[in-house]
Amino acid sequence: MKPPKPKPTPRKWNFNLDTYLNPYLPPSPLHLLPPRLSRFLGYRAHPQEDVGNVLGAWYSCLGAFCGLAVVAAVFDNTASIQRSKPPALIASFGASAVLEYNAILSPLGQPRNAILGHIFSALIGVSITKLFMLHPDFESLRWLAGAVSCGLASAAMLLTGTVHPPGGASAVMAATEPVITEMGWYFVALVAWGTVLMVAVGLVVNNLGWRYRSILR
């Protein structure tokens, strides 16, 4: 008589979105592009050694400055963005700058994580905030909306393989910052656009001496 199979427990449960998506996604075409272009999109035909921390500190400083400066300049000079009266810089972008231009070998700072992590978190943050706004005493519940938003955003990023810690800040800001709350769904578009700009800068600066992957895998 065969022994009964062990029952699955929550400790054994696992969900990997890529398992379901990869069969339908084409392979990365980066190796087919001209060498200079493919390099700045993160492709390397041969493994590359990492740079020392002194040179790395220079690249991270340059990247953080350029990335945030580009975002601020674009936001400040775009009339449609200025009509929503956004802050000079979205605070969560500062944390993203450290990951995207400093810890570029970390999975948490890769383009996919940065872009989708911020978008998912902002989307969840705005959605939860709008639900809480239906309560007549919303102002006293901002803290709760922020906590719920961050918790759900954290879970969503883990399940989709897009964990990017600054995304949690974007979710919280949607609930707790009155200026951001006033933007509503426009905040999601603003976060997406700003993150794409930062990743674009990263593809240039980070691939001067290091290797930063592109969104194409």
UniProtKB/TrEMBL annotation:
Keywords: Membrane, Transmembrane, Transmembrane helix. InterPro entries: HPP (IPR007065), TM_HPP (IPR058581). Residues 53-209 form the HPP transmembrane region domain. This is HPP transmembrane region domain-containing protein. The lineage of its organism: Eukaryota, Fungi, Dikarya, Ascomycota, Pezizomycotina. The chain crosses the membrane at residues 57-75, 87-109, 115-134, 141-163, 183-208.
